[in-house]
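Quick one, tokens below. Sequence please?
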């Protein structure tokens, strides 16, 4: 009855039905925009500069990348040393039987950042002692000295730790104390060796700190990378401002996330570590680095999977497995960093070797999750390349990302091997990461490599200057038919059936063939 005589319907009810109908239609249109037809989705994405590059341009992009990375290596080679070492040799008059040593550190400033005290123990050579391992107790007392030479106790208690000494051709270096931040200008440390056999005697102690020249150069280069990243982020966002976000490709969406995280990776708050004496700036730097690196791992998984799955990507089936794997990696790395920092705040003599059993379990867990990640990533890469190798545009995106990422991974593995060698998988590697910088090149190479990698991706994934005009011209039939001949309009153009992989190169080739005919 209400449908036959709508005039008798309540006006308020009629208006409510009309609003519900409009909301339903709007939702349907919005859903169709988000999940278009699979074949049509590739061509509705915001255009990328990658599509307009010829082979010469691709070569030029890689050449510029290698030139920029090479410049960072040259600057690193010419840079200052990272670690300042000051040896202390005990007086020979004390004799090898002396087991108590009173040590005074060199004068320190905030530019020294951290302080290590290491010890080298020598074993008297006997035929019966080749590869030996011995346990002994080490008692350490730390006093802090301020500028006016008045002594304040940094920690009143005496730290008693059991250390393990391994000797083969020569005995391994032992880290006695590690201070993550410096509150005083000098430290007086008393070291006592207990239960150490008479065949072992202390050869020397070594004070290690970051070089003040290295700290100053580090501040400037972090500042340069922060400014460059901010400029690249603004330019990338400016290039995409005229395109709707739902038309962005998955690479463009991820670049809008990775570039701000790269800004945090370069740590704009790094100068705080020289202004305040606290563990917080160092912990913040570690958190930013782990967050960016795990986001980069998640980017690779999502791109190689999302480029195959067009349309709606469900959170439970698409994002959750990837977030679980990468989240476990991030959790393990952050746990190790917090574990080390908190224990060193309570006890500067703490080292990972003391909690060897717990650290071994954490290391096995990390390696298992990393293996799962590598296998999953290889599966996604192989499947994407096999299914999409003949798709226009998409194969070009896959080839470029795979080639550039492969180059970055090879360089990263080479740097890690040159930096740590065979010690990469040893138990004490995490505890000694900061003391293994042999030169400034090893520090600058990682920052330069990741920054230039993201800059290159931002360049090729950003739209060109005429991208908006070309996309509107192509989508508007009134403008697209202006340049068509009558034969093309009536009989169709052979050019429209061509595979669209590289617009400029294929268009030139087709025109040459048509002119010859």
């Amino acid at each position: 009855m209400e449908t036959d005589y709508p005039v008798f319907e309540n006006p308020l009810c009629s208006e409510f039905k009309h609003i519900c109908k409009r909301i339903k239609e709007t939702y349907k249109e919005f859903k169709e925009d988000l999940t278009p037809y699979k074949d049509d989705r590739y061509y509705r994405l915001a255009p990328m500069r990658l599509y307009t590059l010829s082979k010469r341009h691709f070569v030029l992009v890689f050449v510029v990348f290698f030139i920029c990375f090479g410049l960072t290596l040259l600057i690193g080679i010419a840079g200052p040393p990272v670690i300042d070492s000051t040896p202390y040799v005990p007086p020979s008059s004390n004799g090898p039987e002396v087991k108590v040593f009173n040590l005074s550190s060199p004068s320190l400033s905030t530019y020294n950042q951290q302080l290590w005290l290491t010890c080298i123990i020598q074993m008297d050579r006997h035929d019966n002692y080749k590869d030996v391992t011995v346990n002994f107790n080490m008692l350490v007392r730390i006093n802090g000295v301020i500028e006016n030479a008045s002594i304040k106790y940094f920690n009143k208690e005496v730290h008693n730790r059991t250390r393990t000494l391994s000797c083969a051709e020569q005995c391994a270096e032992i880290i006695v104390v590690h201070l993550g931040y410096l509150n005083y200008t000098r430290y007086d440390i008393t070291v006592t060796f207990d239960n150490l056999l008479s065949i072992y005697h202390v050869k020397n102690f070594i004070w290690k700190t970051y070089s003040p020249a290295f700290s100053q150069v580090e501040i400037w280069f972090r500042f340069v990378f922060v400014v460059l990243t901010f400029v690249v982020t603004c330019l990338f966002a400016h290039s995409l401002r005229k395109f709707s976000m739902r038309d962005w490709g998955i690479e463009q969406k991820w670049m809008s996330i990775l570039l701000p995280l790269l800004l945090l990776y370069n740590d704009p708050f790094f100068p705080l570590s020289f202004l305040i004496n606290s563990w917080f700036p160092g912990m913040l730097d570690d958190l930013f680095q782990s967050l960016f690196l795990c986001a980069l791992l998640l980017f690779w998984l999502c791109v190689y999977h999302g480029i195959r799955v067009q349309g709606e990507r469900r959170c439970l089936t698409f994002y959750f497995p990837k977030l679980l794997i990468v989240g476990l990696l991030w959790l393990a790395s952050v746990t190790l960093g917090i574990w080390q920092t908190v224990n060193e705040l309570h006890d500067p003599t703490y080292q990972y070797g003391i909690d060897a059993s717990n650290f071994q379990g954490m290391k096995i867990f990390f390696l298992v999750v990393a293996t799962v990640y590598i296998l999953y990533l290889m599966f996604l890469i192989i499947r994407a390349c096999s299914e999409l190798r003949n798709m226009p545009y998409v194969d070009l995106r896959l080839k470029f990302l795979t080639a550039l990422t492969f180059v970055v991974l090879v360089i990263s593995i080479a740097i890690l091997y040159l930096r740590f060698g065979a010690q990469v998988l040893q138990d004490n590697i995490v505890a000694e990461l900061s003391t293994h910088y042999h030169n400034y090149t090893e520090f600058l190479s990682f920052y330069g490599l990741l920054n230039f990698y993201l800059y290159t991706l931002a360049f090729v994934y950003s739209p060109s200057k005429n991208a908006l005009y070309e996309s509107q011209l192509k989508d508007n039939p009134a403008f697209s038919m202006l340049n068509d001949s009558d034969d093309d309009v009536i009989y169709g153009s052979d050019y429209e059936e061509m595979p669209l992989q590289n617009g400029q190169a294929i268009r030139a080739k087709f025109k040459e063939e048509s002119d010859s005919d």
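DSSP finds 15 helices and eight strands in the chain. The CA atoms of residues 486 and 492 lie 9 Å apart.
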